[in-house]
Amino acid sequence: MSAQSVILPLPSDHARFIVLRLKDLSIAELKEKLTALLSTRDRLITQHPNAQIKTGIAFGPELWAKLYPQTPVGFKQLQRIHGAFDMPVVPADVLIHLASQRTDICFALSQAFFDGIQDQVEVLDERVCFRNFDGRDLTGFIDGTENPQFPDDRAETALLAEETGVFAEGSFVFAQRYAHDLKKWKKLTVDTQENVMGRSKLESIELADEVKPNNAHVARTVVEDEQGEEMEILRHSLPYGDGRGDQGLFFIAYTQDLKIIDAMLMRMFGSSGDGIHDRLLHFVTPMDGAYYFAPNEEVLENILEV
Predict the structure, then answer these.
(1) 242 included as an active-site residue
(2) Domain ranges of the chain
(3) Who contacts 115 (Cβ-Cβ below 8 Å, separation ≥6)?
(4) Which residue from 112, 122, 172, 282 could staple onto 23, CB 3.0 to 4.6 Å apart?
(5) Which of 137, 143, 278, 288 is labelled catalytic?
(6) What distance in Å separates the CA atoms of residue 265 and residue 53, rounded to the nearest whole number?
(7) CA-to-CA separations, 42 to 45, 48, 50, 58, 145, in angstroms, rounded
């Protein structure tokens, strides 16, 4: 079995994220369009071998139950959080993650999928994202500093293990768009920004425990197991925006255990029981959020052939 191509490699410079509900599109028609998308991908890989073209297709829990007779243990819908800040949930049927070193190729892949079905689906989001300088979020801080870098570590973090049987090499996905209030953010001094993040801005070095605020972003997004070991997720998040001010981050993470995401979100939004929330939420606003499952290549092929 093999994981879908977008999951394990380091992020490309350009990505496009498509989030949709089927609306009037039948499951059979969806399968046809996803097959067309993958066919276009394979042709473009042959024509542009240096473009690092990668794709990921994931399904929401409601649609998954209609596509496949079994469900991976732990797969569920994201639950809304009412804490110090509210976190919305917008369930979707399909999440498509397109990545390449070229934005035109991401566009061509999206075009291949939507051709002929534009009025049959409800597009919740089609977000064009990009690598910003040396991997920085629009806040100016490097994003994903703690991401595992080596292939084996990335696989252990993101992919379901062999003992999950047919679901091995699949991955749970969390996707959530954050809108940034950069006007408000830029009023802060660099020192204050670093305290909000819990890292230095230039070098992305985590602040020492004795000076790092307990409501810093880094402090609130760290989840540890019973042995005190940090439980990691594999981030592929990228910024988006236009010059007029609609700017932010499309946060997407792959994981072998959604409980890690649950715990991170509870700590961020102030519902974990300690009365503390992530100070970054004063400057960024979640606009949606949902869980998905990205099956391995073999299961995906089986789904599309049926």
Answers:
(1) no
(2) 14-305
(3) 33, 36
(4) 122
(5) 143
(6) 31
(7) 5, 10, 13, 18, 31
